[in-house]
Each structure stands twice: as C-alpha cells, then as structure tokens.
Amino acid sequence: MKRILEVALGLVTSIGGFLEIGSITTAAQGGAAFTFQLGWAVALGTICLALLLEMSGRLAAISKHTIVDAIRERFGFPFSLFPSVIVLVVSFLVMASELGGVALALQFVTGIGIRWWALPIAAVAWLLLWKGTFGMVEQGVSLLGLVTLVFLVGAIKLHPDWGAVAHGLVPTMPSHEPAHYWFIAVSILGASITPYLFIFYSSGAIEDKWDSSYLPINRITAGVGTLFGGALSLMVLVVAGSVLVPRGIQVDSVEQVALLLTHVLGRWGFILVVASLAIGPFGAVAEIALASAYIAAEELGWNWSEDVAPRDAARFSMFYTVLVFLSVLPIALGLDPLKLTMISMVLTAASLPVSVVPFLLLMNDERYVKEHKNGWIGNTAVALIVLMSCVLAVVSIPLQFMGG
Amino acid sequence: MPAACVARACGATISLATACLVTACGGPPAPSEAAQTVGSWGATAQFVTERWNQSAVSRKFTVVTLRRAGSELEALAKKVAQLPDTANGRATLVAGLREIRAEIAALDTAAVHDDHATAARIAPKLAIAAAQMDTLGQRLQSQQQAQSK
Fold it and tell me: Fewest beta carbons less than 10 Å away: which of A125, A234, A326, B93?
C-alpha cells in the first residue's frame, strides 16, 4: 500500500510539476507560429528528460551518490567544477525567468507592475525553502500544479485535427521562417531537458533514502509521469495552434498566453491559466534554488539536506538564500521575462553536452551502477538528442538574431 | 587552473546571454516581420477587448494587455522609422501602425473608464486593420522569398 501511494505521489509530482514558464511559453510560441508542426520537439524533449530522470534515480538508488557527487568522485574536483558552474549559471537565468513568470501572473490579477512583485515572490519562495521540507517543496507545489491539466481539458474542448497533431510529432522542415522555426525548436528542447531537473531528482532520491527496491517506482515516476507531463506541454502547443493561428496572433508576450483558454472555458479558462502561470513557475523557483544549493554543497563538500534545520546545513541554506534574492535583480532591473525565458532555454540547450556527457559516462560505469548499466538504446537516444539540441542552438542563435 | 577555466566559462555564458539580449532589442526589423507583429498586437488587443466585453477576463488584465500592446507598438514604431524610405511596403506599414496604435489607445481609455459600449464599437475596426497588416506581412514575405530565389 505504501509503495502504491509512493508511485501515485511520484506521478502527481511529475505531472503537476512539469509545466513552468519555459515549457508553457515555448510550446505556445511554437503553436502560434507553426500550428502543430513543432510537436516533435516537445516529444523529443520529453523522451530525453524521461530517460535522464530514470538514469539519475537509478544512479542514486544503486550507488547512493547524487549526480554531482558521483561526477566529482569519478572525474576529480577540477573537472567536475566546470559542468557544475555552467549548470549553476544557466539555472540562475532560468530561475530569474520563472520568477518573472510568477510576477506576470500576479500582475494580470492585480494590475500592479511585475517589478513590485519580484521581491515578495522571492521572499515567499525563500520562506518555503527555509521552513519547509523536501517533500513540501517537491510534492506540495506539484499538487497545486495539477491545475495545469486545464490545458488538456481546453485542447479536448477545442476539437483540433488530431491527425494533424499526430503528424506534427514527426519532424518536418519548415515551410517559412526557418531560423525562427529552429530557434523555437531549440527553446522547446531546452525547456524540456533542463539539467536542474535531473540534478534535483537525484538529490531528492538521496534525501528520500532510495535503495534498489525503488527502481520500479523510479521507472514509473520518471517514465510515465514525465510522458504525461510532456503530453500537457503538447496540449499547450495544440491550444495555441488552434486559438492563436486563426486570429493571426504570435506569442510575443505572456499576456497572449493568458488568453488561450478564454474562448472555450470563459472566465474559468482565464483564472486557471493565470493560476498555472503562477504555480508552475513558483515551484520551479523553489526547485532551482534548491537544486543549485545541492550542486554547490555536493561540489564543495558542505553539509546538505532540505530535511534538516538550516543551522545544521548553514552554507547550503545560505547559498539558496543568496541565490533566491539575487534572482530578483533581472526582473527588478526591467528585463522582459519572455525574452529572458527564450534566451535561458536556448542557452540551456547549448550547454547540455557539458552536463549530460559526464553523467552518461557514469551510467555506463559498473563501479557506480553495478549490473544496472545503461542499455545502448538509452545511451544512443540521449546522446543524439543532446547533441542535436546543442548543434541546433549554436546554429540558430546567430540566425535568429541576425534576422531580428 | 580550474578557477580560470570556470571564470572563462562563466564569462562566455554571461556574454552570450547579454549579446542575445542586446541584439534582440536593436536594429530595424524586416518590413514583413514588422507588419506581422503589428497585426499580431492589433489582433491581441481586439481579442482581449472581445473577451472583456464577454466578462471572460478582468478589466485590470485588459488594461495591462492593452498597455503592453501600446508600448510594444511604440517601440516598434521607433524601429520602423529607421527603415529606409524606399523599403518595400514602408508607407502602408507606417499608416497601419499609426491607425492600430490610435485604436489601441482609444480602447485603453475605454477600458480604464469601464466603457464597454465604446470598446465594442472600436474592436471590430481594429480587427480589420490587424488583418490588413497580417496580409501585408504575408505579401511582403512572399515577395522576399521570391526575390531570394
């Protein structure tokens, strides 16, 4: 019974915690610009994330090491510092854009500008981390995040051409604006395969004291849960393609995303989308801050755990405290949350090989995962998707900006 | 050695992000792209007003969206002004942009005063102007593609 409950909770966490500002806005942009044609990017990103999450849970359950800890032990401190710092820098940008997402949602409700909201949101996120436990951060916010199921309801009520949606799952060349097409594809991939997610997942598995008996739960949570989450992301793309394309509306700002379901669900469509825009990104702010503190603490050998009092992991707690409040700066200084989101997602995609390749090597090292090594399918799929994301990012960034 | 390496990596990432942000904000857009952006914001303003008139969104959100549309188009107008006079479709683009900005400003005033009747009168005109801009953008894009071939 306990295990069934754990599986259920894991699934809820994966589904409710999947959509945040990056995945919502990039999928909406893809749908508004190319209808269902970029569905494949959502599908590829989701498959890659599911594989990486399963691997990180397996590594933690078998070796009792987190990803950062194992990379440092296996490759040495000087080598491991490089991917850790890159992930920290990129995660900081993602965190700032998530904070901007929550601030925008609050602006939509109150009319008060986003700059005024950045600090109070950071304070609430910090309070959750300071007073809360790992379970509260991971599961509490994800339970509320189930509100994002509204995109599934909306997509069904819009009666899209499901054949065309299925056709979009197969990669095709764009008929117009190729630079923009690939730029959005990379943003979608970057939004899905964010390194903080699998670093957070592996540290969480250690926090929850996983052992080899958790492998089936890990497989279900990472596989089924993530695929359901990815399906929600696909529904955002479907809704945007169905609602915005006929009206000639591109997604240049989050206001346009908030309007997505007002046509089919009326006032509730607006309320639930704004709630999705607030809850998902808020959970992401807390998770990124925690994941960043895990990285720093594991890299530098500090005490770490979200389940102990802050005074017992003082440097760990101080790290997330400083980071949460620093993330206020980009929004308070007036950076546009959507632009920041797009740029941080593309940079995430460009930096993926740095964080994923050492991890893949670990997953093939018997000293860490014993007989639970990766199969060739998992290795090949993750390596190809990560390489493709990186190459596309490097190529599409200059093309997109040269084209304005 | 690792510290220098990490510093270089951090520097490169931050420089790339800054470069992206700076280039994303500068330079005049292609007329086709500008026309489609104008059409998109016009259609957004029309859509939010229509939803507000049907009580699907709040007045506060309507005002926030209309102001956003106004400020985005104001920034775009400055960039469009940098386009050479000979740029294909420039005159139609400038006229359409001016008309849509004026209608969005009027809608903003109507929303602030909770004046649904005025908003309902302006919104259809805005929809037509936005559709015209979208068509112009598509036409210019087709011409651009034909020329590049």
Answer: A326
